[in-house]
Specification:
Blueprint (H helix, E strand, L loop, with lengths): L2 E5 L3 E2 L5 E8 L8 E8 L6 E7 L4 E3 L7 E6 L4 E6 L8 E9 L2 E5 L3 E5 L2
Parallel strand pairs: 2-11
Antiparallel strand pairs: 1-3, 3-8, 4-5, 4-9, 5-6, 7-8, 9-10, 9-11
């Protein structure tokens, strides 16, 4: 059974770069036809898909965040990483990593709260 675990800072200052890592166990991030996503939920708002990295290493991003977002992976550690640049208080949210696949339900990490504040 695949499991995902987010890690990273709980507090980030405005204008800094947020870096979060998702460690995957019970399955490989290079397994065919799966995509590894970052999704966030600001307080009082719905889920926002931020971007994903595919099994081949290709990436896709939300148009609204594309200019500030980068997703990469380390296959030797079975991890993928989110970098969000120039954060503002509006980036305060619970951040989730997830596994997705066509015709398959999402498998979620437990989520990590990130607050942007000086």
């Amino acid at each position: 059974q695949v499991r995902l675990q987010e890690s990273g800072p709980a507090l980030v200052k405005p204008s800094q770069t947020l870096t979060l890592t998702c460690t995957v166990s019970g399955g490989s991030i290079t397994t065919n036809y799966y995509y590894w996503s970052w999704i966030r939920q600001p307080p009082g708002k719905g889920l926002e898909w931020m971007g994903a990295i595919g099994y081949s290493g290709s990436t896709a991003y939300s148009p609204s965040l594309k200019s500030r977002t980068s997703i990469s992976r380390d296959t030797s550690k079975n991890q993928f990483t989110l970098q969000l640049n120039s954060v503002t208080p509006e980036d305060t949210a619970v951040y989730y990593c997830a596994r997705e696949g066509v015709g398959r339900s999402r498998t979620w990490g437990q989520g990590t709260q990130v607050t942007v504040s000086s």
